[in-house]
């Protein structure tokens, strides 16, 4: 098996690339809108994290620490020495771990976190456990409603695509294993957020005030040096609910290089 995670790359070479990391039960495809919006200006790389998408059979799957190890290995194998990081939910936790591990090497140019895991111990564990093993399109769609703001449309094509993937029983088996790895009983494992404030690069935090997976109040725990953006009427999927605004924040965060 390749030492590089499956990925999609778009945009011109030259400037420091943006690396996208998806959330639990997602895939690199969740970032397609941002990749298309940026493809004339910036190189972007979206990975499938271990146990997700085309990385279903990655040798080791589990918590964000395992994903961080795979991302660092992949970027090194690709010869990418410096990069911006953008991560959502579990991918946000993964991005934090990558940044903390590589802080001394200064390989990370910036960090943009969307409703990231690890900012507190509260988490909607019942929803995640049910979502991990759901296989019927109607059930997946009903559960997806809780990931979006109350008045935000839930794209049926996402549920349809997930249901098709989950015809392979290995998919739900992997997700069930991963969800137990990121949870600690009915809670989630959290970071020492004081370390986030000491990172030598810009850090932005994006959250929706109607997030029903990870409560928005966790954003208040961010150190004062972290830029915080909270969107009204948005749930746990800001990159899908307010994609233009998220892309704008990414462009501003990455503008220096």
UniProtKB/TrEMBL annotation:
**Superkingdom:** Bacteria
Biological processes, Gene Ontology terms = acylglycerol catabolic process
| Record key words, sorted | Hydrolase
CC per GO annotation = membrane
In the record, which residues are listed under signal peptide?
none
Q: Which GO terms describe its molecular function?
A: monoacylglycerol lipase activity
InterPro entries according to UniProt = AB_hydrolase_1 (IPR000073), AB_hydrolase_fold (IPR029058), AB_hydrolase_sf (IPR050266)
Give start and end of each AB hydrolase-1 domain. Answer: 18-247
Q: What is this protein called?
A: Alpha/beta fold hydrolase
UniProt lineage: Bacteria, Pseudomonadati, Pseudomonadota, Alphaproteobacteria, Hyphomicrobiales
